[in-house]
């Protein structure tokens, strides 16, 4: 949709080899006219009764005459933040996002006195409408579509921007203790291409520190970063930083593949456990099996490029979710994982797509319900409230934002401090014009989207 594919964290279980998931339910809801709300809703209900993690909480006799989207939402458990449904024939049914339309993410914040409200662009995709319009990480937004940002309108303006095919931003700078409007930028939605990883090697006294930024865990990611790990290996790095601060997830195969590149774990090493309802049961999968489900690579290729690390630094924020959180949690039994940043999104669950795959399709909707809870080889999971980092650093308190992976980025600096105290430059808040000792995030465009970067099974 809109030129950008949603990437999902893939789950795998033997039950999928035999189930009628491709037809979506046990029987055709023939008691109702094809295409009617009751027809579609019967299919939805039958599917959830079989696969939904919270199937025991489903109502006995729901109203089948509601619109399918309303009906679906009415069935969801109160603890479910992530299940959703879409109609591929209707682009409007997909979740809105700035990055998907324009190629950038931003947060709206206020300072401690509550009077200064502004947006901060956190990430701009290469060769996107945003980058071609001159937007860059660290730019300040004072107005959206001509309206100055306030506490009361920040959420509405973000939603309007993400649901429209065009928008206008006013970019500002600091003058004294206030924002001064500089220019307006007109955006038109366009195609967002896949993003390359960012790689650096820092020299910290006598130590070499590798840095790798991963934007997501899209198909083929692990295969694509093998050359990056080979470079780290050839340079004999002493420590590795993986930056997943804006990574909303992707496929479990890619998370497993990156885990293998980091750790060098043997093929049969336990990696992930899926726990479903009474129908789904419980299944543990090895790292080799998980990684090899991406048929673009052989597990042996990953081991050849592996660094065999026993310690890893991960940079995280509230946007870090799904497969990215899986990387954190499922590395822990084997690697000393040190997290720096902010509490992650908290998505310890998995889904697969349920759709009508009959030769003569009568239902166009696709369901993405939560099916499993996830845990690592030690049975550790339950991070639905997020993974709290060992070292808290809020990058928005150190303005202006530095380039991702720059030596003066506050998250990278904290790693330097941890590696060798006294060698790194002391972290400082660079702009004394802004009262940023206590900054509050009002909205975050990426977190609005993260709920839809769900876990999906292989076909």
Automatic annotation (TrEMBL):
Q: Per the record, what is one GO cellular component? A: outer membrane-bounded periplasmic space
Give the protein's recorded name.
Carboxy-terminal processing protease CtpB
Domain spans labelled PDZ: 100-177
Give the matching PANTHER family.
CARBOXY-TERMINAL PROCESSING PROTEASE CTPA, TAIL-SPECIFIC PROTEASE
Q: Give EC number(s), comma-separated.
A: 3.4.21.102
Q: Which organism is it from?
A: Sphingobacterium thalpophilum
* Keyword terms of this UniProt record: Hydrolase, Membrane, Protease, Transmembrane, Transmembrane helix
Listed under GO biological process in this entry are:
proteolysis; signal transduction
InterPro entries documented for this protein: ClpP/crotonase-like_dom_sf, PDZ, PDZ_6, PDZ_sf, Pept_S41_N, Tail-specific_protease
Originating gene: ctpB_2
Q: Where are the transmembrane segments?
A: 6-25
- One Pfam family of this protein, by short name? PDZ_6
Domain Tail specific protease stretches: 180-394
UniProt-recorded Gene Ontology molecular function terms: serine-type endopeptidase activity
């Amino acid at each position: 949709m809109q030129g950008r594919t949603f990437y999902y964290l893939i789950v795998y279980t033997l039950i999928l080899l035999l189930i009628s998931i491709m037809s979506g339910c046990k029987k055709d809801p023939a008691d109702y006219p094809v295409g009617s709300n009751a027809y579609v809703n019967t299919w939805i209900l039958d599917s959830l009764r079989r696969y939904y993690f919270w199937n025991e909480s489903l109502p006995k006799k729901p109203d089948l005459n509601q619109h399918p989207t309303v009906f679906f939402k009415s069935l969801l458990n109160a603890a479910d933040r992530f299940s959703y449904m879409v109609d591929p024939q209707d682009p409007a049914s997909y979740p809105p996002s700035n990055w998907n339309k324009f190629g950038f993410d931003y947060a709206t914040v206020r300072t401690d006195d509550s009077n200064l409200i502004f947006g901060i662009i956190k990430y701009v995709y290469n060769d996107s409408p945003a980058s071609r319009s001159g937007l860059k990480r660290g730019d300040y937004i004072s107005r959206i579509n001509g309206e100055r940002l306030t506490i009361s309108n920040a959420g509405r303006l973000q939603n309007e921007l993400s649901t429209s095919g065009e928008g206008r931003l006013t970019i500002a700078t600091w003058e004294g203790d206030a924002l001064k409007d500089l220019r307006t930028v007109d955006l038109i939605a366009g195609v967002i291409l896949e993003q390359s990883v960012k790689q650096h090697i820092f020299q910290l006294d006598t130590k070499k520190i590798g840095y790798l930024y991963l934007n997501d865990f899209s198909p083929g990611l692990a295969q694509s970063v093998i050359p990056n790990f080979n470079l780290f290996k050839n340079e004999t790095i002493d420590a590795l930083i993986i930056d997943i601060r804006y990574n909303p997830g992707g496929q479990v195969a890619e998370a497993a593949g990156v885990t293998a590149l980091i750790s060098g774990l043997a093929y049969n090493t336990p990696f992930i456990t899926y726990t479903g309802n009474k129908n789904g049961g419980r299944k543990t999968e090895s790292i080799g099996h998980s990684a090899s489900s991406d048929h673009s690579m052989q597990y042996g290729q990953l081991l050849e490029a592996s660094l065999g690390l026993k310690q890893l630094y991960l940079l995280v924020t509230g946007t870090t979710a799904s497969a990215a959180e899986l990387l954190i949690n499922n590395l822990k039994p084997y690697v000393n994982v040190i997290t720096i940043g902010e509490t992650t999104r908290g998505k310890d669950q998995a889904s697969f797509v349920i759709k009508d795959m009959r030769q003569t399709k009568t239902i166009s909707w696709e369901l993405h319900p939560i099916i499993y809870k996830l845990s690592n080889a030690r049975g550790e999971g339950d991070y639905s409230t997020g993974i709290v980092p060992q070292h808290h650093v809020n990058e928005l308190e150190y303005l202006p934002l530095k380039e991702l992976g720059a030596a003066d980025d506050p998250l990278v600096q904290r790693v330097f401090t941890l590696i060798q105290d006294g060698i790194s430059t002391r972290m400082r808040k660079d702009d004394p014009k802004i009262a940023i000792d206590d900054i509050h995030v009002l909205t975050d465009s990426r977190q609005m989207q993260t709920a839809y970067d769900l876990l999906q099974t292989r076909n």
